[in-house]
Amino acid sequence: MPDPTPGPDENAAENGPGNAPGDPAAQPDEHRAQDPGTGPQEEAGPEGLTVDDILGTPQSTDAESGDAAAAAGAEGEESPSAALAEERLEELRRLQAEFVNFKHRTAREKEQLRTFVTGDLLQMLLPVFDDIDAARQAGDLTDGPFAAIANKLEETLVRQGLVRIGEIGEKFDPNVHEAVLQQPTSQVEPDQVSMVLRSGFRIGERVVRPAQVAVAVAE
After folding, report:
1. What are the boundaries of each domain within the chain?
2. If we measure between CA atoms, which residue out of 204, 188, 186 comes closest to residue 196?
3. How much is the average pLDDT of 31-55?
């Protein structure tokens, strides 16, 4: 009986020339697309553009305007951190102003304390100054060691802010002068000091002792 198995020539005739059973080219298109060894091919963009060409394309005018508006809006919005920084800065400014006021107030209080202490010391030395003035008017302190001591004492207190009150020709001021009598005279204008009976003293704005004076009146 003849062999039913087709021979090589018959297989070749059925498959066609170059279409062997194991040849991938002979497989249908759907089998070739599902071949795991063949990945999807990256298609080129229109007119052969690549991804870099697309990303490097300059923006249009509308796109640039939109970006600028978005950036301006972001700058106009105050962030919480900026608001907190401004609040802390305002607190520092307030603390600095309070410190400056405290410093000035302390300096004034210190000066006032020094003035009162010097004034109290001067009040205890007032009899000494009265004796010095009396000795000068009598001519006993024109020269000599006692005159030098009296001058040094007065110079020391002047450096501490001592001011003598009571000069002939001054305008009478009841705040610093004590009118003892009225003296008719033409040597000075009316309501001016015509004679100093006892000198007064002042430390800063504090009058330690008013000057006893005679006030001129018209003759």
Report:
1. 112-217
2. 188
3. 50
Q: Alpha-carbon distance 177 to 170, whole Å?
A: 10
Non-local CB neighbours of 53 within 8 Å, separated by 6+ positions: 45
First-residue to last-residue Cα distance in the chain: 184
Location of structure tokens 């430390």:
203
| DSSP single-letter state for residue 171 | B
Length of the chain equals: 219
Query: Which CATH code is given to the segment(s) 112-217?
Result: 2.30.22.10
Count of alpha carbons within 13 angstroms of residue 59, beta-carbon side = 8
Q: Are residues 161 and 193 in contact, defined by beta-carbon separation less than 8 angstroms?
A: no
Cβ 178 vs Cβ 211: under 8 Å:
yes
Average pLDDT over residues 179-206: 90
* Phi, psi angle pair for 35, to nearest 5°: -70, 120
Rounded mean pLDDT, 27-39: 45
